[in-house]
Amino acid sequence: MSQFDAFRRSFLRTGAAGLAAASFPAASLAAAASSPHATAEALGRQGIFDIRRFGATGDGKTLDTRAIQAAIDAAAQAGGGVVIFPAGSYLSFSIRLKSFVHLHLMQGATLIAADSPAPGQSTGYNGGVYDAAEPNTAWNAFQDYGHNHWHNSLIWAEDIHDFSITGTGLLWGRGLSNGRGRKGDGPPFLAEQAGVGNKTIALKNCRNLLLRDFSILKGGHFGILLTGVDNVTIDNLKIDTDRDGMDIDCCQNVRVTNCTVNSPWDDGICPKSSYALGYARPTRNLTIANCFVTGCYQLGSVLDGSFRKYTPEDHIPHTGRIKCGTESNGGFQNITIANCVFEGCQGYALESVDGALLEDVTITNTTMRDLVTGPIFMRLGSRLRGPAGKTQVGTLRRILISNLVCYNAPARFASILTGIPNSSIEDVKLSDIYVESAGGVASAVPDLPEDENQYPDPNRFGETPSYGFYLRHMRHLEMSHVEVALRQPDVRPAFSLVEVDRADFFAITASRAKGNAFSLNNVTDLRIGWSRATDDITLANVGSRIL
């Protein structure tokens, strides 16, 4: 094994930490790259490819696209290597990653997405354009434009393996479209227009990927879009953006840890299982742990440490959540989420509306504060956006959620767990949960619409008829050691059960006088025991009753 091969393997295995522990520490890399006596050829023999040696200026004005791509290509031709971005501001259009190439952003390095062509223009900054989006396919209609195209991005790759991006530098999607035409800190570029870029990192059909330690500011439609990418480690990223933080679509064996995502206008960490590959592929064997998601901070203020919050007058949707869906053709299997913090955003969402088998999910150790929807949203629906005749209602089952605390949940919304007629959510266990709702609703609220073929979102249902949990079309539900409290008096019951079969409630506490804690409609095989919310009771069949 050559000295470089040994170094490269150690470097890829240990990531950014490997710069301190592997054969060439970070200081040695920086020193070697900056030595006035080193040539690009000599550094290449050591497996180091400094983009400045290939002509990059880092002045924030000159387009460095060709120099960056030349360094990547040279590393690939050498059998692999580390492409170094020294401190500086590197303006670029699309760059394409290659197998066995490791991009390392040194402290103080910023890769800036150059301005896309403005509406009506054919070129962007200094006559440049992003790589052309792939031709449309027969399955494009089954997901949004951004999910169907990868090449029109700042960094993209397809059908490669064993590669990585690390370092404490910044990726700034300044010149990208966010896909909605909303003005951020630049013009509202149109995603579908030729030459426009709309993602920071987009990868398709790849394997063995490491993303670690860098930050993303204003990432376009997606800060990170992974489609059909397997064996992935995403660790210690900070993403501060105006659409999705990261979407993990049709991917397997993925670990997302220690990340911070501020995404006020869209989802923070979003597993999906779309039809973008032209077939249904599940996202499975996924772990999300030790992450902070939020939707309440002004763009850029998380990265600069000022943490300036939006005000109600800003009319921000405060999305920022962890969500499985909405695109859900292939399914979600073997998902675990642990030790996460939510602030000023929506809660968890588990959605199967396009035929997905959503099953075997555990969520534990969550703290939430100042949410704009209930802490938990589960939806089994029949939007069925997929090939006609092949897309049937999916499943949502075997879900365990425990050790969750939520302060200042919104008055209008309970947690909503709802299937549709003849398709129930099954085998759900909720335990050791404390939710404090703002409360204050002064009049009764009618039952929620079914809306079984509509876009699934808690806001679409409107105000809920209970303040704690709304449970509909479910089988085999168990809730234990759950408390739902109120900050202000509220006329609604704590729990609404509609079309629920076999439900057990144990050690339940609610801020209601006995006699108005549970609203029951068409409920069978119900047991409530050892609860402060109501007396112990077993009911075989209930048409309509208040407990």
List keywords for this structure.
single chain; mainly beta; 547 residues; elongated; 28-stranded mixed β-sheet
| Uncertain runs | 10-25
Strand content: 35-45%
**What value does the Rg take, in angstroms?**
25 Å
DSSP summary: helix tally: 6
Largest β-sheet summary: 28 strands, mixed
Cα shape: elongated
Estimate the mean pLDDT confidence. 92
Structural class: mainly beta
Helix content percent band = under 10%
How many DSSP-defined strands?
A: 34
Terminal CA distance reads 73 Å
Blueprint (SSEs and pairs):
Blueprint: H1 3-14, H2 18-21, H3 26-34, H4 40-45, E1 48-50, E2 59-63, H5 65-77, E3 81-85, E4 88-92, E5 95-96, E6 101-105, E7 109-113, E8 155-158, E9 161-167, E10 170-172, E11 199-204, E12 207-212, E13 215-217, E14 222-227, E15 230-235, E16 238-240, E17 244-249, E18 252-257, E19 260-262, E20 269-272, E21 283-289, E22 292-294, E23 323-324, E24 332-343, E25 348-352, E26 357-369, E27 376-380, E28 395-409, E29 415-418, E30 425-437, H6 458-461, E31 469-486, E32 495-510, E33 518-529, E34 537-546
Task: Provide an overview of this structure.
With 547 residues, the chain is mainly β. It has six helices and 34 strands. The chain has helices at 3-14, 18-21, 26-34, 40-45, 65-77, 458-461, and strands spanning 48-50, 59-63, 81-85, 88-92, 95-96, 101-105, 109-113, 155-158, 161-167, 170-172, 199-204, 207-212, 215-217, 222-227, 230-235, 238-240, 244-249, 252-257, 260-262, 269-272, 283-289, 292-294, 323-324, 332-343, 348-352, 357-369, 376-380, 395-409, 415-418, 425-437, 469-486, 495-510, 518-529, 537-546. The protein has a 28-stranded mixed β-sheet that branches. The radius of gyration is 25 Å and the shape is elongated.
